[in-house]
């Protein structure tokens, strides 16, 4: 298991030391594919925990790690085309940072020690902040600054929360450890006051990393200004990992008997995020910022599902997968459109379907998928969460959920339908930015996956999602 | 009782000497020899023998101002225990009366200033009263902290034998209260960094400008009142700061006088090394002092 | 030992107050450095017999160097590059910040009374001090306009978290504590680099001017 963590790091060192700019993207591709192969082998071979049980492929990891690996591999293929066209910028930090990000993400996914996951999450923030500044514009600088400050603030509060949990485990008879298995086994021996306080701070801290409202203020700027690849990885990978870390904390809370408090908080924050996203997505003129608010919405859905428990939590796991893949499609396609028109604003971009047939249609398909249209995957996961809510008798929150989803569909639709159809004649065009295999292939592949998951969810995956939900607790 | 009266008499007599010590310290810092320690006595005598001039715009308020001020301060002196011995008068809650007697003295002076009808004096009065209203919460928080620490409700009980025990148990809280009390003392007595007693520029005067119109015996009363107020504040601070020592008899008196001298030196040092704060920064200083003493109180209540 | 530790905790809170009210950036940096230096002494004062002296000494020294020397030096270089000396009136004014800070401290003390501790005699004032410092840091980050002040606020917050972490020094592995320090350096370094670039884009380190993207 250490191999999948260390391999990307090795490639990142190679990339950082490589003097030839044209060769560095190959390291990215090599790193991504090696990681994918490694993860595939892990799923098949099911090895025992590494590092004295600090790294383990538990059900939550099995849900999220393959998705991240696939997403990264697709992005690394995309990067070949993207970086080839961006020769004006120095890509040393870009390639190195992305590979470090992959390594850190792997650690977060598999870590069973709350302290280790914290360090790795902090590393994801640090390794991506300079990359947001890739465009070197004033707005990118502000976005990078806000991202770094807000996320670091959240991370510091998350550390305090982790300390609270450690203190909870230090009560008489407690396990005196931050390993998940020890904490869960201790159950009611943990000091409840500290667990509750710890959960509150960890919700704020990891919620900032996820981008739940009201801690989402970095998202619109960061996703709006970052290159498409980074947007895909952040919104598909890092936010899902924030969700997984939060789920692990809920696991501890359930064992300690504080599940009710945790779940109520999650449902409230989830609905608040969805509501806020629905307000800001209406009349959004920048289609990349629109995607940021969509990300806030989906993190809200994930928190909502996690908070409801039972069937809804299992669907939330499924939704995490769907969201990650679909966001990959959306951001990569949006990146293509942005680059071709030289602008992100709805006023200046139209007719994307004609100029960039693949990217344009993918952007439209991705929009339909993410807002929950059948037959794509997200429809089934979102519907299932609603089912869970109504089945548990929580009609009010279920109704709110449905209302927000509809509002967002309308709001996003207005923006997307201005960008994709129409006549591109007269709109600004940048040379040499038509769809190519490298820039259009990966999002197409991811979209196919999303469609496949919607048409037929393999039995094995369903069992996995149920197992992950059961881990989190009832 | 006799001891208390003796202490009181000594206090009233020595008040101008304290101001002399402050001025001497400042002169030493400035590299001069400075005026003799009993300079203020000579000034008071000189002023007393002079005639007095009253402006046509003033009324009886202007004449009454200095008298009421000194009377209030003398009454306040009755309640303050000097150096640990009981005060001449005391009852439960008299520290509130003490604070407000000092306030009454300031009020009378400010009224007299307003009575002159000059905008110059009015400006000084306005500034002085504003700063005083900000120093008041700080003063009360200090006194409440002391009351809570010693368990007493009158100045005699607070500053009496209970104080050394309180110092042993609650040293940090009392230290914070003492620091805040020092800042409040500087504010109430119009010393640097709140006000400059030596300046005569319109832009920078606060207390000085209030008393600009008084002359002769009235001015002598004002000067004496100022020195007495400094003495009373200094006595309070010295007792709180040195409260951890407990001696008897003549040694107690010597300790008290030594503490006062230390206080005067400290004031002189502060005045010589710091500049006056910008007027907009004075509220921050006073709120800071309030917060410090509030923190001391929180430490006590924990 | 206990009296010294108590004194250090109280000094830390007093420094918190001074950070909230001060507008001269050099004074703020110095105060934050003093706070960091004070905190580096705490592991030595609070260590129990169960932990080896070498580890505690290393932690103290590391904290002293990073918090007391390196980071303040970086910040001083930053303000020298940008040639700024004062914080302008913050979003929440100086006096309201001070009062809010005082209220936070009082709340921290009140709330800590209810929380059970494994070794209550040793760490009487620790939890309230830690929470007060975290609150102060949060106030600074949220209410200050200049980027340097926000970074200092973040550092103060990390100080508070560090103080809290000392509670675990008896039984938790080194990794968490080392991780905190390491990440702190890394975070400030990166922030510093960004700050220098921010500095070149705008001639004042004023983040209010950076409100260009708006919805």
Secondary-structure map:
The complex is a heterotrimer of chains A (474), B (302) and C (215).
Chain A: H1 2-17, H2 24-45, H3 59-85, H4 92-110, H5 114-132, H6 138-168, H7 180-186, H8 192-210, H9 219-225, H10 228-256, H11 259-281, H12 287-308, H13 311-341, H14 352-355, H15 357-370, H16 377-391, H17 395-419, H18 437-455, H19 459-472
Helix pairs in contact in A: 1-2, 1-4, 2-3, 2-4, 3-4, 3-10, 3-13, 3-18, 3-19, 4-5, 4-10, 5-6, 5-10, 6-8, 6-9, 7-10, 8-10, 9-12, 10-11, 10-12, 10-13, 11-12, 11-17, 12-13, 12-16, 12-17, 13-15, 13-16, 13-18, 13-19, 15-17, 15-18, 16-17, 16-18
Chain B: H1 2-30, H2 39-49, H3 60-79, H4 94-115, H5 119-150, H6 155-158, H7 162-169, H8 171-188, H9 207-210, H10 216-241, H11 249-273, H12 282-301
Helix pairs in contact in B: 1-10, 1-11, 2-10, 3-4, 3-10, 4-5, 5-8, 5-12, 8-10, 8-12, 10-11
Chain C: H1 2-21, H2 25-46, H3 53-82, H4 94-112, H5 126-143, H6 147-165, H7 174-201
Describe the protein's architecture and organization.
The complex is a heterotrimer of chains A (474), B (302) and C (215). Chain A is mainly α and 474 residues long. Chain A contains 19 helices and no strands. Chain B is mostly helical and 302 residues long. Chain B has one domain. Chain C has one domain. Chain C has helices spanning 2-21, 25-46, 53-82, 94-112, 126-143, 147-165, 174-201. Chains in contact: A-C, B-C. The interface between A and C is large, with 45 and 42 residues.
Continuous helix count of chain A: 19
β-strand percent of chain A reads under 5%
Count structural domains of chain A.
1
Question: Largest interface: which pair?
Answer: A-C, 45 and 42 residues
Number of β-strand runs of chain A? 0
Residue runs with pLDDT of under 50 for 5 or more positions of chain A = none
Strand content of chain C: under 5%
What's the pLDDT, averaged over the residues of chain C?
A: 78
Mean pLDDT reading of chain A: 88
Structural Rg of chain A: 21 Å
The rounded Rg of chain C comes to 18 Å
SSE class of chain C: mainly alpha
Which sequence of SSEs, written as H and E, runs from N to C of chain A?
Answer: HHHHHHHHHHHHHHHHHHH
What oligomerization state is this entry in?
A: heterotrimer
What's the domain count of chain C?
A: 1
Shape of chain C: globular
| Quantity of strands of chain C, as a count | 0
Helix and strand composition category of chain A: mainly alpha
Largest β-sheet summary of chain A: none
End-to-end CA span of chain A = 30 Å
